[in-house]
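ingest -> fold -> write
write: protein_1
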Amino acid sequence: MLIDNILYLNMKIATYNVNGVNGRLPVLLRWLEETAPDIVCLQELKAPQEKFPVESLQAAGYNAIWHGQKSWNGVAILAHNTEIKETKRGLPGDPDDEQSRYIEAFVNGIVIGCLYLPNGNPAPGPKLEYKLRWFERLQAHATTLLKYGMPVVLAGDYNVMPTELDVYKPERWIDDALFRPEVRQAFKTLVEQGWTDAIRKIYPNETIYTFWDYFRNAYGRDAGLRIDHFLLSPDLDSRLLAAGVNRDVRGWEKSSDHAPVWIELADL
């Protein structure tokens, strides 16, 4: 990977599963205006390539690259008044995989991998098998990224609750594809390559959720899940200053069932 003009800056990076970028565009634009992240990873665009709202985002001050898909999936990276150099579109390892779940770019001296990992339900079955294969491909690509020796952030909706601390009433989720032992082990194996789970580094023992279902007043009861994660390469671990969840955004009218998650990185 040939990268030039490396520029390290203090920056705020966010990830947000928007659950339909066009239908929830007012929410997205309001959140961008109020919080002003430098880099944003979006998932579940649910829009074909030509329907991505690039003009609206540019008007808000954000450049964008995106990998769309009609009705399903879709990922994007936004950068506030900053150049984005796309480095990869689609996760390597399966040339027949047509689902739009991974996009990667170089922004302000950091490689940003934006991902939307498969849900895997119903489990067991073909969807869980696809999820585990996708995890294996992610593990392989993550190893390659670490070998480059550059700062890397892998951010997005991983569709996994790593521990019981990350799920409301874990006993109810034992057989779900987001919490099955083999899925949690796949996430653990990925992290043990040397990645830092940013939220858990800042909040090692606190209950932190990033998703609340639309049903049964889950948000009001705080019956949530932590499935949106930041994994940081070893050279970014010491630069992590802060992390959090914009929980209130989940309560906005016509909002996604996810809330934005963010980290702040210090300059070198």
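write: protein_2
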Amino acid sequence: MDRSRVADGRDDAAWFDVLFEEHAAALHRYFVRRLPDGGTRADAAEDLAAEVLATAWRRRDDVPRGAELPWLYRAAGYVLANHRRKARAVPLAVVPEVPDDVDPAALAVADDRVRRTLALLTPRDRQVLLLVAWDGLGRDDLAAVLGISRGGADAALSRARARLREAWEDARPDAASGES
């Protein structure tokens, strides 16, 4: 494939093939991490990722060459917000017949503290931290997703990390009782 034709947009189908190959899995992971647990989470993540990719195809002239992933993540944020507004009921997960070797009490404590900590943050701080920690974005890409300057993204990340440290302490199991 002639990448120069793909890079300048003269071969839209080839451009989209490269976009899909390089970023479809990352989009799917983005949604899996942000959707509620349940039997249909993987299917919903696949559908939402497909919706973002379809949007990229329709708006291919708007997708900045060389910065496709940040553009896709920004679009994914809008698609996820629309999905959440629909507020569909989530079916109960199927209980496995054979238990695994993980101690549910230890797992629940760790997960519960993480959930409590994230719940203490603003939606913006959660978005910033999760894009960096879960999705592996660098600071330039974070700035593109947030629609702000690199300096603004650095400041947002620094502030979010500081608030995360405070929230982590506030979410300690013994923090509510006043123990240390």
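write: annotation protein_2
The first helix runs from residue 3 to 7.
Residues 104-180 form a domain with the Arc Repressor Mutant, subunit A fold (CATH 1.10.10.10).
pipeline exit 0
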